[in-house]
């Protein structure tokens, strides 16, 4: 986590976030200058951002929309008031309507982003000024602080480069909050190929098997919003274990980029989770990211303790071998 300090000053009506990164200022600045890189971290997990406009110049404006796990959306805009390349960005930050125009029903803020070199790389200092204590409290109650911190927590992998961050490291688990985890896996194949293998039943039966010695007995899916799926596995002869399965519904589908589904174990009172899958192609490979939301911390700890991540790595490694053999 690159964030080193968060300070709220209720008298000055400000919130200041400081973060440090092991990259030069030019690399950090480039992540804010490029809308495709901004999209990879500006929205918090579960609410990825899409920038449809990004004119980073004095008088210019950006427009982005964050989409939640059930298709709900929240749009925002930036209006740039000062730019010192490599040093400072100042802007008006506000909520927007679907067409990118300022939403007069919602608060606006002033924001300053300062980029500084350090001996170890660079420092980023973001200060937000609120118009009143009521507006500050309103935005904090809406989850602005937590959302910003979770969004900035994604910057490391963007600055490092997705391949460098994940390739060759297997299945990575990050605990984002008491009820959220993020699982990432680099696959050496283009995104369309990975998406097809991830969502085609006859291919899924070849790799989505977990540990050796299991077979998939049921794989039915309708990956459209409102559709459902059913998976089931059983041990092969000589393998210990009990047959089990999962089922759920599709809340959001944006192929070949994103799919959000519910998941619950069939025939048990096990808690239902929300699984938010995204795929981002970079440098000839695909970073697969799965953000899982649990109903409570106890459920999260119980499910992680079952060896779930190890089983996922076995399946993902099998998927990668299958795609490389084709």
UniProtKB/TrEMBL annotation:
Domain Activator of Hsp90 ATPase homologue 1/2-like C-terminal: 23-160, 189-323
One Pfam family it belongs to: AHSA1
Family classification: Belongs to the AHA1 family.
Identification of the protein by name: SRPBCC family protein
Organism the protein comes from: Demequina capsici
